[in-house]
Amino acid sequence: MLNIQSINQYYGQSHILWDLDLELPEGTCGCLIGRNGVGKTTLLKCITGLLPIKDGSIIFNGKDISKTSTEARARAGIGYVPQGREIFPLLTVEENLKISLGARPDGKSHVPDLIYELFPVLKEMKHRRGGDLSGGQQQQLAIGRALVLDPKLLILDEPTEGIQPNVVRDIGNVIRRLNHEFGLTVLLVEQKLPFARKVADHFYIMERGKVEATGAIDQLNDDLVQKYLSV
To answer: Where are the domains of the chain?
Structure first.
């Protein structure tokens, strides 16, 4: 599904990603883990086209998308939920969701019923402005907006950050359902290890711009946590 080969990325003169490799098989849920500042969000932005890479390749569904636009990647089936949600506060919930319809390849003009089934609160509040929602409700809106694309790959950047525990649980259940029932491939950045262990199949530990350790989620042991994740 996603194969990243030897990519490098710079912010000005700062070398952020160093010959980074990552492979995410179709139908799996992978979790990027690492201390702050190791390049996790930068990697997600490179995958979605929000940041350019200097060299290397990003292969999605067998096609090299390294040079394609963000819009083209969305149409190809990459949905992105950014850190901080970035919903439109003055638009209604329904208007926020409809924004993504333009990137659907099938030309559908209404919000799929599945979005409201997964997140009933969005149906209840679809005429309220996005800025009037709680943080947890805004996160559900951001995920729903990405799902409107009918993506093949869903990318989430710290979906539990600043969210109340009951909504964290609901989001985890939705991710598991999308992955297990619908076969949606998922890549997320997550700092909370219990949540990562609940939803993910595989982990990728990043350190200094590289993936330094990877494996099945049940192989994420105390030694790895101590080596790469402890402050």
So the answer is: 2-87+149-229
Q: Which pLDDT tens digits describe the chain residue by residue (231 residues)?
A: 999 999 999 988 899 999 999 999 999 999 999 999 999 999 999 999 999 999 999 999 999 999 999 999 999 999 999 998 899 999 999 999 999 998 888 878 899 999 999 999 999 999 999 999 999 999 999 999 999 999 999 999 999 998 999 999 999 999 999 999 999 999 999 989 999 999 999 999 999 999 999 999 999 998 999 988 875
Tell me which residue of 120, 188, 178, 169 sits closest to 147, measured CA to CA.
Answer: 178
- Please give the Cα distance from 219 to 231 (Å, whole number): 21
CATH fold of the domain at 2-87+149-229: Rossmann fold (3.40.50)
> Using CB atoms within 10 A of its CB, is residue 216 exposed (0-12), middle (13-18) or buried (19+)?
exposed
Q: Which helix (H) or strand (E) holds 2?
A: strand 2-11
Closest by Cα among 31, 51, 32 to 42: 51
What is the pTM assigned to this prediction? 0.94
